Amino acid sequence: MQVVCLDLEGVLVPEIWIAFAERTGIPEFRRTTRDEPDYDKLMRWRLALLRQHGLKLADIQAVIAGMAPLPGARDFLDALRSRYQLIILSDTFYEFADPLMQQLGRPTLFCHRLLADAEGFVAEYRLRQSDQKRQAVEALKGLNFTVIAAGDSYNDTAMLGAADAGFLMHAPPHIAAQFPQYAQHEDYHALLASIDAAAARLA
After folding, report:
1. Cβ proximity of 60 and 20 under 8 Å
2. For residue 181, is pLDDT > 90?
């Protein structure tokens, strides 16, 4: 039995924090897991920046409500689901993802939680599990699934390494150069062909 595990932001939908930076005019929010390998450090910095600018969870959700998946992402997922089991492994938050999951046909999503205070500011975040992408892949393999994975950022590389086959999708040049063992893809047709080829090889 084969499972495909995909990252969400950058692979299927635009980067939420980059969209938020563009909407607010605050360029510091453009920093993502493509730039900062330490996820806790990145999130602590984001929460402080939100508080500094008086921005609340609802402000982020308002931006997300106007976002759409990347062109071709829904068709790509539908093609995958016709062939394989599919799980989205993301370091986003359920409080962010729901409008985008609706547009993608509600694939299974494993991610994290945000906690807001009484005033609506994001006070804390709760990881579902530390290093959850890699741990999910290893757990699936422990259940005798063959896992094929794709992502674009530093926080995806452990998942790609744990999978039976891993690919980069829309990765920035510095990550593609740093992890040449994972073939880089820029369009969904090519990624689907590589997943199909890996699935046939691993069958």
Report:
1. yes
2. yes
pLDDT given for residue 43 in this prediction: 87
First to last CA, the chain: 8
Cα distances (Å, whole numbers) of residue 95 to 47, 50, 60, 102, 114? 15, 16, 10, 13, 7
Confirm whether pTM is higher than 0.85.
yes
- pLDDT at residue 108, as a whole number: 96
Q: What is the CA radius of gyration of the chain?
A: 17
| Cα–Cα dist 185/168, whole Å | 6
CB 149 within 8 A of CB 135: no
Phi, psi of 32 (to 5 degrees): -130, -175
Which pLDDT value is given to residue 145?
Answer: 97
Q: Which pLDDT score, from 0 to 100, does residue 39 have?
A: 82
Q: With H, G, I as helix, E, B as strand and everything else as coil, classify residue 93.
A: strand
The residues that are catalytic are: 7, 9
Report in angstroms the alpha-carbon separations of 137 from 9, 22, 76, 91, 190. Answer: 18, 33, 21, 14, 23
| Tokens 């990624």 -> residue | 191
Task: Walk me through the domains of the chain, giving residue ranges and CATH numbers.
Answer: 2-13+70-111+129-202 (3.40.50.1000)
